[in-house]
Amino acid sequence: MNIQGVDIHIEGNGPDTLLMLHGWPDTLALWNDTVLALRDTHRCVRFTLPAFDANAPVAPKSLIEMVSFINDVVNAVSPDQPVTLVLHDWGCVFGYEYAAVHPNRVHRMVAVDVGDHNSKALHASLSGKAKWGVFSYQIWLALAWQLVNIFGAMGRPLANRMTRYMAKALRCPSPLGDMHVGMNVPYAMKWMGTLEGFELACNALKILPTARPMLYIYGKRKPFMFHSERWLEKIAAHPGSRVEGFDTGHWVMSNKPEQFNELLKEWLG
Questions:
Q1: pLDDT of 247-258, one tens digit each?
Q2: Around Cβ 229, how many Cβ atoms within 10 Å?
Q3: Angstrom distance (rounded) from CA 136 to CA 146
Q4: Looking at residue 209, what DSSP letter applies?
Q5: Which residues of 127-160 are buried (b: 16+ CB within 10 A; e: fewer)?
Q6: How many CB atoms sit inside 10 A of residue 249's CB?
Q7: Most exposed residue of 33, 69, 117, 230, measured as fewest CB within 10 angstroms of its CB?
Q8: Model confidence at 238: pLDDT above 90
Q9: What is the pLDDT of residue 57?
Q10: What pLDDT is recorded for position 239?
């Protein structure tokens, strides 16, 4: 189906609907292996985030607009039953916000590598070097976005090169040819207040870890984490929830797909 100009892909006929949200600089293709592993037992729903698909230009959405859009998708694909969210990177941020605003529409969550992204606990846990590492790559991507805002089409070639340069530096496994500056809007929202920013975003640490069962998966082979120890402790202590660290980088599902998919099968079952 198509909702607000975004193609929604649905595969499988299982009783449990999984809504999969990717992050930067990916598309719905990030979940290809996961869908192949789960579609015999689950109904897998996914789409490329608005503004992330270069072949289907859709205007970027504010946080409030994104939550509303996700709700339209959930109501269309599973009007009578809550869904399971499967999230990665910025998909976690948008998915957490959706779960906080519409708690009755989310049964449980699988979240990959981004936890309490805006908590004081996470900020306090990062070293000065780690804080600089986060800021430097994110502001680079935000500035690339602003190039197009300021110079229009003239700034796009350089902005695209900046985006692909950073993706290559961060060892993103998605095809570089699919990446473009439109994917950087969340960083401009975070650092420059674009589209009203994230000032009103939920505090994930306070709201989410004990609201429903959660499987939290993260890569341990990174220069810094996107969660605090308190986040892990809260999830691990909640009945039915689970924390698993993989010997991978940020893209766990791409670095170790078989191990990742087996864990999802076990926990979802």
A1: 999 999 999 999
A2: 11
A3: 15
A4: T
A5: eeeeeeeeeeebebbbbbbbbbeeeeeebbeebb
A6: 18
A7: 33
A8: yes
A9: 80
A10: 95
**What's the token pair of residue 85?**
């969210």
pLDDT digits (tens, 9 = 90+) for 133-169: 999 999 999 999 999 999 999 999 999 999 999 999 9
Token output for 87: 């999230």
Single-letter amino acid, residue 84? T
Structure tokens at 7: 């193609």
CA separation, residue 214 to residues 23, 112, 120, 159 (Å): 19, 10, 21, 37
Q: Are 178 and 93 in contact (CB under 8 A)?
A: no
Q: Among residues 108, 129, 98, 91, which one has the least CA distance to residue 222?
A: 129
Scan for tokens 């959405």, then name that residue.
61
Query: Which amino acid type is present at position 137?
Result: Y
Q: Is omega for the bond preceding 60 within 30 degrees of 0, making it cis?
A: no
- Alpha-carbon gap, residue 76 to 156, rounded angstroms: 35
Q: Are 242 and 235 in contact (CB under 8 A)?
A: yes
Q: What is the pTM of this model?
A: 0.97
The pLDDT, as a whole number, for residue 94 is 98
User: What does the alpha-carbon distance between residue 120 and residue 107 come to, in Å, rounded to a whole number?
Assistant: 27
pLDDT single digits (tens) 101-135 = 999 999 999 999 999 999 999 999 999 999 999 99
CA dist., res. 267 & res. 211, Å (int): 17
Sign of CA dihedral 21, 25, 29, 33: negative
Are the C-beta atoms of residues 115 and 93 closer than 8 Å to each other? Answer: no
Assigned token pair, 221: 């082979």
Mean pLDDT over each residue of the chain, to the nearest integer: 96
Examine the pLDDT at 6 and tell me if it is beyond 90: yes
Give which of 191, 30, 21, 2 is closest to 97, Cα–Cα: 21
Residue 21 has phi, psi (to 5 degrees) of -120, 125
